[in-house]
Amino acid sequence: MTNTAPEGRRTGLTRNLAAKIATLPMIATALVVFLGGTIWTVVYSFTNSKLLPKLNFVGLAQYRRLWSTERWLVSVDNLMIYGICMLILSLVIGFVLAALMDQKIRFENVFRTIYLYPFALSFIVTGLVWQWILNPEFGVQKVVRSLGFTDFIFDPLYDQQIVIFGILIAAVWQGTGLIMCIMLAGLRGIDEDIWKAARVDGIPTWKTYVFIIIPMMRPVFITALVLIGSAIVKVYDLVVAQTGGGPGIASEVPAKYVYQVMFTAQNLGQGFAASTMMLIPVIILVIPWAYLEFSGKRRHG
Amino acid sequence: MADTLRIEGAVTPEGPHGRKPRRALSRRNIMIYGVLLLAAFYYILPLYVMVVTSLKGMPEIRLGNIFSPPVEITFEPWVKAWSEACTGLNCDGLSRGFWNSVLITVPSVLISIAVASINGYALANWRFKGSDVFFTILIVGAFIPYQVMLYPMVIILRELGIYGTLAGLIVVHTVFGMPILTLLFRNYFTSLPEELFKAARVDGAGFWGIYLHIMLPMAVPIMVVAMILQVTGIWNDFLFGVVFTRPDYYPMTVQLNNIVNSVQGVKEYNVNMAATILTGAVPLAVYFFSGRYFVRGIAAGAVKG
Q1: Distance separating alpha carbons of residues B231 and B78, to the nearest angstrom
Q2: C-alpha angle A124/A82/A102, rounded to 5°?
Q3: Which chain A residues have a beta carbon less than 8 Å from that of B62?
Q4: What sign for the dihedral angle of Cα B255, B256, B258, B263?
Q5: pLDDT higher than threshold 70 for residue B115
Q6: Alpha-carbon gap, residue B305 to B303, rounded angstroms
C-alpha cells in the first residue's frame, strides 16, 4: 500500500492511538456490556440454567413455561394497561400544561418548579408517599369518610382490580413534569409568525394547536414518546416501594418478575427468557428512532 | 402548509404587534390559572403531606386527618428515622444508608463524568474508524432494560473480583451512566469552534494536552449539568444498589424501602415519612439550588432512558 498520508501522520491502527486508548472504557462498555451482555442473555434464555448459567440448550422450553406462568401473564397485562394509560396521560397532561404555561403567564418559574420537582425524587420516595396518601385507614378515603360520606371507597392499593391505577397516579405525578418541560421547549421553538398568521386567518386557538402546532412539533412528540416508552418498560422501583407487587400478585410487572426469578428463585434460564421478552417493545420503539436520529444526518466534523 | 401560512401572514398589513391587552380577570385567564393551580395542587400535595405527617406524633396521626397541619409539632420522628429506625436486626437508622449513598455517589459521579468527558471529546475531535459505531451502540444500549444486562454484569464484576463491593457499584454506575453523559459531552464539544482545536494542534498539543488545557476549562457549564444529572440519578438508584452490593453497603433508597416496608413491628408512619423526606432531601436540594441548570440538564439529556 502506498502511504499518501502527510509526513508524521500514522495510518491504520496507530492513527489516533491516544483517542483509541482513551475511549477503551467506552468501547468495552459498548461491545462487552451492551452488545455482548444482551446477546449473552438472549443465548442463555434458550438453556435450562438454574443456579448457574449452563449452556444446556432446551429450545423454547423457557418461553413456553414463561407464557404459562400466571405471574408473568399478570405482569404483561399490567404493563400493557399501565403503559397505554401512562402514554396517553403523560402526553395529554404534559402538552396541556405546556400550552397553558406558554400563554405568557405570570409566575411561570414557580409553576415549573412545582411541576418538575417530583422528577428529581427517587421512585422509592414517590412510591412510599403515595402508598401513605392512598392508605385507606389514614389517607384520602378516611378523610372523605370523615366529611360524612361514610360509604366512600377509595383504596386502589388494596383492590386487586384497580391496583395498577394506584401506581399510575404516582407515576403520572413523577413523570409528567419532564414531558411538560420538553413540550414547552418545543412550543417555544415555534415561530411567532405562525401564530400571527393563524390569528389573521381567524382560526380558533384550539384548531391552531391541533392542526398546525402539534403536527409541527412531531420531533418533540417522538422524543417524548421514546422517553415515556422506555421508562414504562423499566418500571420497577415504584412498584416495589408502593405495593411490593401486591395485593397477591395483582401489581406485578415484568422487570420485577425478572428480578424475582433470577435473584430470589435462582431460576436463571427463566429470568433470561423474561428479560429477552422485555427487549421486544424496546426494539420496536427505539431502533427505528435511533436510526433516524443518529445514523441519517451527521452533524459537523 | 406552514409555508403558505407564513406567506399569507407576511402579506397582511402591519398592525400593532403582540396580543390584545386583556383584563386581568378575563374568563380566559381564570381558566388558565384555574387549571394551572389545580395541577400545582396535585403536584405539591404529597410534599405537604410528607412534611406534615413527619411532624406529628403517632396518636395524632391515628385520630386526625393526614391533610391537617400538626397540632403539636415534634421532631422526634426525624431523630428516630435518622438514628434509631430498624432494618432487620440493625437499629442504627437511616444514617448508615446516607453515608453509604455518599460513599457511592461521590466517586461514581466523579469517575463517570471523567470517563464520559473523555469519550465526548474523542468523539467530537478525534474521530477514528468505528468510533461512531461504538457511539451508536452506546446510545441504543441506553434503552435496553437493565434487566437484560444485569446478570452479564454480575459475571463481569465477579471475574474482576469486585462483585458486591463499592468499587463494583461504581463501575456499574459509570457503565450505565455513560450513554447519556457521553452524548452530552460529545454534543457540547462539537458545538465549540473548531478553530480552537486546530490552533492547538498547530501549536503541537496532543490528545491529552488539548483535553486538559483547552477543553476541560471550557466544559464547566456542561460539567455542572452532568453533575446534577449524575448526583440525582445515582442517589435515587435502587435496582443497582440491591443487585450489586451487600447489605452493609446498601444505599439510602434501599434502606428506606426496607425500613418502611418491613413487616415486623408497629408501623410508625411519622417516622416513615421523616425517613422518606430525608432520602429525598439531597436530590431536592440539588433541584432547588440548580434551577435552570436542572432544566437544561434534562432538556439536553432528553434521550435518557
Answers
A1: 24
A2: 85
A3: 138
A4: positive
A5: yes
A6: 6
According to the model, what pLDDT value does residue A252 have?
94
Q: Which three cell numbers stand for residue A155?
A: 383504596
Q: Does B87 touch chain A if contact means CB atoms closer than 8 Å?
A: no
A133·B45 Cβ contact <8 A? yes
What confidence tier does B2 reach under pLDDT thresholds 50, 70, 90? very low
Q: Is B143 on the interface with A (CB under 8 A)?
A: yes
Low-confidence ranges of chain A (pLDDT < 70): 1-13, 290, 293-301
Q: How confident is the model at residue B264 (pLDDT cuts 50, 70, 90)?
A: confident
B33 interface with A at CB cutoff 8 Å: yes
Alpha-carbon distance B131 to nearest alpha carbon in chain A (angstroms): 8
Q: How many C-beta atoms surround the C-beta of residue B184 within 10 A? A: 24
| Domains of chain B: total | 2
* d(C-alpha A289, C-alpha A296), whole Å: 11
Indicate whether B154 and B217 sit together in one domain.
yes
Cell of A193: 409568525
Return the C-alpha torsion angle A115, A120, A125, A126, nearest 10: 30
Written as nine digits, the cell of B276 is: 422518606
Question: Residue B35's Cα: distance from chain center in Å?
Answer: 28
pLDDT at B13: 45
- Torsion sign (Cα): B5, A214, B26, A180: negative
Residues B218 and B110 grouped into a single domain? yes
Q: Chain B residues with CB inside 8 Å of A101's CB?
A: 36
Instruction: Using alpha carbons, select from B115, B243, B126 the residue that is nearest to residue B180.
Output: B115
Contacts of B52 (CB under 8 A, 6+ apart): B66, B67, B68, B69, B70
User: Backbone phi, then psi, for A47, in 5-degree steps?
Assistant: -110, 170
Averaged pLDDT score across all residues of chain B: 86
ipTM: 0.86
Query: Could you list the residue range(s) of the whole structural domain that residue B101 is in?
Result: 97-249+277-300
Question: In angstroms, what separates the C-alpha of B28 from chain A's closest C-alpha?
Answer: 10
Which cell numbers hold the place of B224? 455542572
Rounded to 5 degrees, what are φ and ψ at A240?
-55, -45
d(CA A286, CA B139): 10
Separation of alpha carbons B104 and B255, rounded Å: 14
Same-domain pairing of B68 and B108:
no
- What span, in angstroms and rounded, lies between the C-alpha atoms of A269 and A47? 6
CATH class of A66-296: mainly alpha
Q: What is d(CA A116, CA A108) in angstroms, rounded to the nearest whole number? A: 12
